[in-house]
Specification:
The protein is mostly helical. It has 3 helices and 2 strands, in the order ααββα. It has helices spanning 4-11, 15-24, 41-47, and strands spanning 30-31, 37-38. A two-stranded antiparallel sheet has the order 1-2. A hairpin with a 5-residue loop joins β1 and β2 (37-38). The longest helix is centred in the first third of the chain and has 10 residues, at 15-24. It starts with a helix and ends in a 31-residue tail after the last helix.
Length: 78
């Protein structure tokens, strides 16, 4: 577990940069019950680009079913 100052030193950035990253959601800090920010080794791996940040993604799949009445595709002749 890293305090913000320790984490910032590891990354070579300022604590203020960490605060902005936390606020924007790019690298959210974890918080204790008393609302004190901290970071983990997993956060360090994400910040160093060794592990991708997990995002809440939704995957949509499009599928089309042909009917019997559908005309066949016309091919262009060259």
């Amino acid at each position: 577990m890293y305090k913000p100052k320790q984490f910032a030193d590891r990354l070579g950035v300022s604590v203020r940069t960490l605060q902005r990253s936390d606020k924007s959601g790019r690298l959210p800090a974890k918080r204790t019950l008393s609302n004190i920010r901290y970071y983990t080794d997993e956060d360090l791996a994400v910040a160093l680009g060794l592990k991708p940040l997990e995002e809440n993604r939704q995957v949509y799949i499009y599928c089309r079913v042909s009917s019997h009445n559908q005309k066949p595709e016309e091919r262009e002749s060259n």
